[in-house]
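Researcher: We plan to redesign the surface later, but first we want a full-length starting point. Tokens attached.
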């Protein structure tokens, strides 16, 4: 029982390390016209939005659509990074977790 608790604690520690590492990874998503860029971290949090200085701000609806597109693209990229890190972590934890189910 004590061994199982140690393995669970180790798994929790590893997951926290992964989450901390994902906070340091930044991905970007762009609108099709490249006027808007959104940046997110590997934990799928938006870090910032940049709008090109020469963007025509008179068309508010179009600008809003470009921002939405860039944000969604950044979140898609963040999801890919997150899934990759989690799969990698799960693969490395499985040998250690093997004894839990015996």
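Model: Full-length starting sequence:
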């Amino acid at each position: 029982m004590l061994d199982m608790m140690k393995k669970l604690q180790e798994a929790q520690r590893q997951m926290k390390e992964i989450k901390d590492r994902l906070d340091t990874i930044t991905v970007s998503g762009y609108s099709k016209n490249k006027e808007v860029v959104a940046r997110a971290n590997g934990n799928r949090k938006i870090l910032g939005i940049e709008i090109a200085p020469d963007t025509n701000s008179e068309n508010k609806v179009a600008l809003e659509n470009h921002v939405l597109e860039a944000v969604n693209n950044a979140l898609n990229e963040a999801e890919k990074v997150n899934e990759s890190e989690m799969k990698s972590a799960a693969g490395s934890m499985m040998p250690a977790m093997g004894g839990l189910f015996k």
